[in-house]
Specification:
alpha/beta, 10 helices, 3 domains, Arc Repressor Mutant, subunit A, D-Maltodextrin-Binding Protein, domain 2
Length: 297
């Protein structure tokens, strides 16, 4: 394989037209330049320069044709070195960010991406929509770098977590539901209602809200229908198949046939957690920690 030092020596000799000046340019002796050039010629099997007693140098026909290739190769090597250093510093490459739907609705995800784009414009941000359990597994398996998830009692090793958002909940009802006539609803009013829970594969989170409602309202265990996401839950509620307890941020979605009401005796906060792998490049980690602190205020 050709050595960069030999290519540099050839380009310097070609541009300076003199071994001594080429050596001065590269900060080495004329003999070093001559050896590097000879090694390159031996590797290629062609003569690149013509020499005379006064050390003046000209290019052979092959040397003239090879010079553009040598320059392009050195430029590509320099580009590769710069890119590698940017990757090491977190200024380039891809950052895989998992997120739950609420991270979009609350503005947390847009805010985080905006901060990263401002600080690291060459960084490729790869957003991946995933539910919390899948994100926890993915970040532990090194398939995600950053995750925006619902809180869990524990997280994978070599990660750090910070709560970045808290919000209340609202009751989503079909427009024809009798309770829409009320501006405020109590837990006890929700007896005999079917609850649609938009967390099909999770055993924590909004399912805990239903348990709290049952306890506060002294209700019998209700029928629970689990769905995969908030949009499906809202659509099912709008269709009259039940009611759903949803994050307040979801009320920004004006789904036809759906009405939102507060539950006056339910004090429940849903949290979003920023979960990051340790060992990310310092520049990325700095932005993530700063964004986490700002969002948590």
């Amino acid at each position: 394989m050709l050595e960069p030092e030999s290519l540099l020596a050839f380009v310097a000799v070609a541009e300076e037209g003199h071994f001594v000046r080429a050596g001065d340019r590269m900060g080495c002796a004329q003999s070093v330049i001559s050896k590097r050039l000879k090694r390159l010629e031996d590797q290629l099997g062609i003569r690149l320069v013509t020499r005379n007693r006064r050390s003046k140098v000209g290019l052979t026909r092959e040397g003239l044709q090879f010079l553009p290739t040598a320059r392009a190769t050195l430029a590509q090597l320099e580009k590769a070195e710069v890119h590698g250093r940017r990757l090491a510093g977190g200024q380039a490459g891809a950052l895989r960010i998992g997120f739950v739907f609420s991270a979009i609705m609350t503005g947390v995800m847009p805010d985080l991406i905006r901060a990263l784009r401002v600080a690291l414009p060459a960084l490729e941000i790869v957003p991946i929509a995933m539910e919390t359990p899948e994100q926890i597994v993915a970040i532990g398996d090194d398939r995600l770098d950053v995750a925006l998830v619902r809180p869990r009692p524990s997280y994978p090793a070599e990660t750090w977590a910070k709560c970045v958002h808290r919000e209340g909940v609202q009751l989503a009802l079909p427009a024809a539901h009798p309770l829409t006539a009320r501006k405020r609803i109590a837990c006890a009013d929700l007896a005999a209602n079917r609850f649609i829970v938009p967390q099909f594969r999770e055993e924590a989170g909004l399912i805990d809200v239903i348990d709290r409602i049952v306890k506060i309202g002294k209700l019998p265990p209700p029928e629970v229908v689990r769905t995969k996401d908030f949009i499906t839950a809202g659509g099912l509620a709008a269709a009259g198949t039940g009611v759903a307890v949803v994050p307040t941020s979801l009320t920004a979605l004006a789904l036809e046939g759906l009405v939102y009401r507060p539950i006056i005796d339910l004090d429940f906060r849903l949290e979003l957690v920023l979960l990051c792998r340790e060992g990310l490049p310092q520049a990325i980690a700095k932005v993530l920690r700063a964004a986490g602190t700002r969002l948590a205020r």
